[in-house]
Amino acid sequence: RVRFFGGFEFTADDMKRRDLAQVGYSKGVPMGGDLSNAPKGKAPSFLVAALKDSIGANLDRIQIVKGWLDADNELHEKVFDVAWGGDRKPDANGKIPSVGSTVDVEKATWTNTIGATELITVWQDPDFDAKQYAFYYTRVIEIPTPRWTAYDAKRFGVKPLPGTRMTVTERAYTSPIWYTPSG
Predict the structure, then answer these.
(1) Is 157 left (phi over 0), alpha (psi -120 to 50) or beta?
(2) What is the DSSP string of the chain?
(3) Is the Cα dihedral 142, 146, 147, 151 positive or negative?
(4) Taking Cα atoms as reference points, which of 56, 58, 79 lies closest to residue 67?
């Protein structure tokens, strides 16, 4: 399950509350909504939370993808790692290293000993320009699990062809939150 809200008033304290939806709707707009009229000198902040599926894989990370139109009407996108499981630290470019993998391809199994069951954060756009149209959406990434090819290889006792992908990393995406400049 993923919740995603955008506004101009979210703080780090908001991610500690258990009434996330109430906070999200009272301070901002939900995914699919439109932000406008940015207060002078304020960048939007986003409250995002993800909860793993009860029978699925743990969560690796939450990413916010920002898209914007520049002065020449060219579209740009940038991916931000905003929350992640484990004690990994961002590199010099702000990217989080791989979570690793617990997949045993031959047995077509994995364990939930890495990642997180729940991730929640408040993130503020560090590159916000109130004059540019923009959109933001969330991508939640699970830890690797066996792909159907691994299950078939085990079940039928066959050796996969060289180069066959044997793991998959499932993802969930939200609808975007749009930013429309004033005027």
Answers:
(1) left
(2) -EEEEEES---GGGGG-S-HHHHHHHHEEETT-EEE-PPTT---EEEEEEE--TTSPPEEEEEEEEEEE-TT--EEEEEEEEEESSS----TTSPPPP-----BTTTTB--SSSSBSEEEEEEE-TT--TTS-EEEEEEEEEPPEE-HHHHHHHHHT-PPPTT---EE--EEEPPPEEEE---
(3) negative
(4) 79
d(CA 97, CA 99): 6
Q: What is the pLDDT of residues 126-161, one digit of tens each?
A: 999 999 999 999 999 999 999 999 999 999 999 999
pLDDT band at 105 (very low <50, low <70, confident <90, very high): very high
For the whole model, what pTM was predicted? 0.93
The single-letter code of the amino acid at 153 is A
| Burial 67-99, CB ≥16 within 10 A → b, else e | ebeeeeeeeeeeebbbbbbbeeeeeeeeebeeb
Q: In the block, which residue shows the tokens 């109430």?
A: 22
Residue 50's DSSP bridge partners are 2, 119
